[in-house]
């Protein structure tokens, strides 16, 4: 058995051609494609809409192949049986495997060897925006200080990077720039969903009332997502009318999220897109779709102080709810009106 030491993680990205329509929740890879992967290893983490991570260290001896040769076997089987091409990144951790799959050919296997020299050779020339969590704002901040490549960031002392980005964001970026990512592959079933619903005492045409209900739903969903350690990739709004008909609309979130603010922005956009001004609404429901573990889902580094403050307030509210009772800390707009004097 031959192979590259320390490269037992795969990131598999299938090119199915169709894909979900814009704004619809990611359903996850087709079951038949996942079955081929499960036929090699049971340690699979599904990543909607069209990817999965796999730990193949237990499969190497059984198949008597190295990780690169085994990945090539999966690629060939996938095309032979279903006519679907895939890119497979092979590396020592999930970040490197993911980057390898996107950096390599659209239909092929790209290996990042596990030696420090090979990891550095792969990472250092690449733009810093290739690292997980580095969006335009973070990349812009780094560029203003002459930091354009991953190598530039890796060479920067950690305290200096933390002064630029903050303690937590700076530490994570410093680790990623040096090729470190301790997150494991988390086995779980294809992403489930969470639903919250509000029925009105009387049918309403008041869109402010509907908006208030949506805010209450996003508060509930956000708290449940954070409490279960998950993030949502999309949101679905279901509106039930007085005549018992329904309308359903979905929208992908800009980034996987469990914050009430992000969920609320998405819910309001869904409401605005429906144009419900004259509709008699009986109930509304929100469904958080494409759930994945928050601990292993790459997160966008935020430099927005408003977003950071909102997250801190959510953490306080979550702790208070866990210690006392649900609703002990609530948004002011959700509190019942005071009795008239």
Automatic annotation (TrEMBL):
Q: Where is the UmuC domain?
A: 32-135
The answer to keyword DNA damage applying to this record is yes
Specify the domain of life of the species encoding this protein: Bacteria
Q: One Pfam family from the UniProt entry? A: IMS_C
Q: Supply the alphabetized keyword list.
A: DNA damage
Record-level Gene Ontology MF annotations: damaged DNA binding; DNA-directed DNA polymerase activity
Q: Name one GO biological process term.
A: DNA repair
Q: Does the keyword Zinc apply?
A: no
Q: Which family does it belong to?
A: Belongs to the DNA polymerase type-Y family.
Q: What does this gene product do? A: Poorly processive, error-prone DNA polymerase involved in untargeted mutagenesis. Copies undamaged DNA at stalled replication forks, which arise in vivo from mismatched or misaligned primer ends. These misaligned primers can be extended by PolIV. Exhibits no 3'-5' exonuclease (proofreading) activity. May be involved in translesional synthesis, in conjunction with the beta clamp from PolIII.
**The name this protein goes by in its record:** DNA polymerase
Q: Which organism is it from?
A: Wenjunlia vitaminophila
């Amino acid at each position: 058995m031959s192979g590259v030491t320390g490269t037992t993680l795969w990131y598999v990205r299938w090119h199915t051609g169709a894909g979900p329509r814009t704004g619809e929740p990611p359903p996850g890879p087709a079951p038949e494609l996942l079955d081929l992967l499960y036929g090699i290893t049971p340690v699979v983490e599904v990543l909607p809409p069209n990817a999965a991570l796999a730990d193949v260290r237990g499969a190497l001896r059984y198949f008597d192949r190295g990780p690169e040769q085994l990945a090539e076997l999966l690629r060939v089987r996938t095309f032979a049986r279903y006519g679907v091409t895939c890119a497979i990144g092979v590396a020592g951790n999930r970040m490197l495997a993911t980057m390898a799959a996107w950096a390599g050919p659209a239909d092929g296997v790209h290996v990042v060897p596990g030696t420090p020299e090979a990891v550095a050779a792969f990472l250092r020339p690449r733009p810093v925006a290739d690292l997980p969590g580095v969006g335009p704002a973070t990349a812009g901040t780094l560029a203003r200080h002459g930091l354009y490549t991953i190598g530039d960031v890796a060479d920067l002392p950690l305290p200096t990077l933390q002064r630029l980005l903050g303690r937590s964001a700076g530490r994570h970026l410093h680790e990623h720039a040096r090729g470190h990512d301790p997150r494991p592959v988390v086995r779980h079933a294809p992403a489930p969903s969470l639903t919250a619903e509000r029925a009105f005492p009387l049918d309403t045409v008041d869109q402010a009332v509907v908006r208030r209900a949506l805010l209450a739903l996003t508060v509930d969903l956000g708290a449940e997502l954070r409490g279960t350690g998950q993030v949502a990739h999309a949101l679905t709004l279901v509106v039930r009318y007085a005549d018992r008909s329904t309308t359903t609309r979905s929208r992908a979130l800009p980034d996987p999220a469990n914050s009430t603010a992000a969920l609320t922005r998405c819910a309001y956009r869904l409401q605005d897109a429906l144009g419900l001004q004259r509709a008699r609404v009986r109930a509304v429901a929100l469904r958080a779709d494409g759930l994945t573990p928050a601990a292993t889902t790459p997160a966008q580094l935020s430099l927005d102080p408003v977003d950071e403050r909102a997250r801190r307030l959510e953490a306080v509210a979550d702790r208070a709810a866990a210690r006392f009772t649900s609703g002990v800390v609530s948004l002011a707009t959700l509190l019942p009106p005071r009795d008239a004097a």
